[in-house]
Every structure is written in structure tokens, then in C-alpha cells.
Amino acid sequence: MASEIYTRLQTLSFTRPSGTAEERKAAAFLAEEIRKAGFEPQVEGFEYTHRVPVRAEVTAILADGSERSFPVTGLIDSAETTESGETGEFFYLKSFDEVSLSRVRGKIVLLHDRLSQKEYRRLLEAGVKAYLTTSGTVRDTYENSDLETARFRLSAHGLQPLPAFTIRMIEAVELLRVKPVALRVVLRLEEKTVASQNLVVTVPGTDKAAETLVVGAHYDSVPFSFGAWDNGAGAVEVVQLLSALKQHPPRRTVKAILFGSEETGLRGSKAWVKAHEGELPQIQGMVNVDVGGSILGKEIVFVTAEDEAETWAKQLLREVGYAAVTTQRVMSSDCAVFSDHGVPSISMGQGAPRGGGYMHTRYDNMDLISADVLEAEAAFLAKLVLRLADAEVFPIRRRIPEKLRKDLIDYFGKEQSAAASLPPDEDPSLPFHF
After folding, report:
1. For strand 164-168 and strand 72-74, is the pairing parallel, antiparallel, or unpaired?
2. Would the CA dihedral through 299, 302, 308, 312 be positive or negative?
3. Do 256 and 366 meet the contact criterion of CB atoms below 8 Å apart?
4. What distance in Å separates the CA atoms of residue 172 and residue 230, rounded to the nearest whole number?
5. Residue 434 — pLDDT band, cuts 50, 70, 90?
């Protein structure tokens, strides 16, 4: 007989992109599960706008003058071409070496990987006209693959977007084989307002109710993915936590938040922090769950806090006998929004072995989900949260060390990072020297 948490995830495992009827359906299901745990969730709606592709075309112009079209999608929030498109000489940019970059001015380039901020700056400096990135693998077929919906993430860094496209890896190989002399690309975008929602449950504290611990997970998925691993697992584990908190009321107030629209830029957590800015000083820490439940892979605890916090997390793992590795870094999930505002965070996740990962693909379904793994993760989440919520003194100081503050600024971009407005961190525990 399937366990309760596994059955809950089975029900939640359907495609539920940001702002869709399916995301609202998922929110309604989770709200009902929260009620079964004995709490009444608050639905907090929010809206955001972005520019989505309505027309994306890439046409290869061959040496004999013939043409061949390739299926692509445009990057959300990238740049438009003219209505008739842009034509440029084709260039496959295999690496960002000086020789290759000296040859790309005015050309349309194919890349076989995603861009870092540094690489994108070099593309701009080199004067490329547009670019294509790839999704999938060379072993895909048309029947078992999808064009990954991606977005231009670097606008936060004040970088001017270029017309940008995603092409299947198998199509990229074919594009190289036909040896085009030029590409004609068309990308038209339209601004779209998206309505989404967060589910918020407040579990009142007993004798330390003025202090708050936030626990969160996102429940939306990318298009075409069932989102079992990413991140239905985290959502149902937070719901499971509520049952433990019902039985063992925490000393500190716990706010459990299921975030919508994480996959489109951490929209849910950004909306919640903006709407509840006045509550931030009372938040001692944030625990996040993102990606879990797979029978393959290792458990990871991401710590965005001081060195002592990672040591504390390691000691807890040893004490309760939970097998996981720790790393002190910025996790690309909702917890980063809280840490950017000065709240230390701990995030639970999974790392997939080579060949065993399926994030943001149609294969993120129940096939590799294990009830035993889900239950073990949920049990550790409860121990972690109760240890933090019930401590006499909160064990993690409310500070973000300078090395992580800089990483947060780099992650969100100087123009949008709250950490950018904070002074450099100075550890108050450092000894004073005459």
C-alpha cells in the first residue's frame, strides 16, 4: 500500500506552469491537504509581467541559395527582431577563446551550453547579432523531447538582451551538418501579465511566538514537466511537516509557505517578501525544500549563512543519523530571496548522478520517485524545523557573511539585489585588538 505522502505526490504530479489553470488546480489540491492537517491556508495572490515569444523562427540559408527552417522557441524577456527578421552570417561558437570571439561580430551564433554572466558580456563586447542555445541531448528523438522554455536571466544585471532562441540539441547537430552560410531569425514578443498565488500557513509559537521561522517550497512546474522531483516532492514534504507541527506546537512561530511561480524567476517568494517587508526583522531563518524524492541521487543541505551554521547543520546530520552532504553557498531557489534580505537559510535538495537527472524535462514524473526517500526527507525536515523552532536561543545568527553577500548580489544583479544596499558584513564576534 502506497504511503500517504507518496499518494499525495501522485495526485500533484501533473504539468502546472506559472499562472495557468493547472497551477491554480495544484494550489487548490494543496490547500485541501493543508486543511486535512488541521490548518487553514491563506491564499495570497500576486501578479507579474514578462515578455513572452509569440513568433520564433530560424531559417538556414545554404550555399546553393536554398533554405531550411528549424523549430525553435524564443527566450522569455530577450530582445525582438524586426517584423521581417534579421539575417546574419552563421558561426558555431565552440568556446569563448579570443580567436573565436574575434570572428563573431555581426553574426548569429550557435552555443552548445547556457551562458554565464561573464560569457554573455563577452558576447555583447564581441558584437554578435543574435544567438541560439540548446536543450536536450544528442540521444533525444522528436517523439521524446521538448523545447525547453527558458528566459533571459541577465536583465537583472543591467545587460542589454539580444534576440535569443532555444533549439533542440538534435536540431543543432543537423544545423551544423547542412553548413549554412547565414541564418535568418525572427523573434516577436508580447508583454503578458501573469496571476499566481502563494499558500501561507501560520503556526503560532508558544513562548517565543514573536520570533518567526519560515519554511517553504515551490509547487509550480515548468511546461511539459510533471514536476514530481522538481518540486512536487518539496511541496508535499512541507504539507507533511504541518502534521508534525500540529502534534508538537513549536516555541517559535512557523510560517509554512508554498510558493507559486518559482520557475519563472522566484516570483512567489519575491512577492511574499515585498508584501511582508515589515515582518522581515522577526524572521530568524528560512528552511527551503527544492528537488527531492528520487530513488537516485544524494541528499544535499545548502547553507546560506555563516560558517558556524554549516557546522551546526553537519552536527545535526550526525546526531539524527541523516545521510547528506552540506555546502555553504547560494541555492538557486526561493530561499535566496530571503537571504538576499539578510535572513539566513538552509535548503534541502538532491543531486542527481550522471545520467540520472531529469530536471525540467518530460521525464520528471513518478517513475523514479521513492516513497522511502520521500518519508526520510520529510522526517529530517521535521527534525530540522523543530530543532530550530524550539531552541532556547536560535542557533544560527542572523547575518550573511560577506562572501555570500557578494554571491547574492551577483545572482540577483546589483540593480535588483537587496543585499547590494547593505554595508559590507563585519562579524561582530571577531576579537578586538588594540
Report:
1. antiparallel
2. negative
3. no
4. 27
5. very low
* pTM for the predicted model, two decimal places: 0.95
Tens of pLDDT, residues 57-89: 999 999 999 999 999 999 999 999 999 999 999
338-351, pLDDT tens digit by residue? Answer: 999 999 999 999 99
C-alpha cell at 428: 561582530
Query: Cis peptide leading into 288, omega within 30 of 0?
Result: no
Q: What cell numbers appear for 197 in the block?
A: 498565488
**Three-state secondary structure of the chain:** CCCHHHHHHHHHCCCCCCCCHHHHHHHHHHHHHHHHCCCCCEEEEEEEEEEEEEEEEEEEECCCCCEEEECEEECECCCCCCCCCEEEEEEECCCCCHHHHCCCCCCEEECCCCCCHHHHHHHHHHCCCEEEEEECCCCCCCCCCCCCCCECCHHHHCCCCCCEEEEEHHHHHHHHHHCCCEEEEEEEEEEEEEEEEEEEEEECCCCEEEEEEEEEEECCCCCCCCCHHHHHHHHHHHHHHHHHHHHCCCCEEEEEEEECCCCCCCHHHHHHHHHCHHHHHHEEEEEEECCCCECCCEEEEEEECCHHHHHHHHHHHHHHCCCCEEEECCCCCCHHHHHHCCCCEEEEEEECCCCCCCCCCCCCCHHHECHHHHHHHHHHHHHHHHHHHHCCCCCCCCCCCHHHHHHHHHHHCCCCCHHHHCCCCCCCCCCCCC
CATH architecture of residue range(s) 4-49+194-421 = 3-Layer(aba) Sandwich (3.40)
Domain range summary for the chain, segments of one domain joined by +: 4-49+194-421, 53-190
Separation between Cα atoms, residue 359 and residue 342, nearest integer Å:
29
Q: Which class is domain 53-190?
A: alpha beta
Tell me, what's the pLDDT at 429?
Answer: 55
Residue whose cell numbers read 542572523: 398
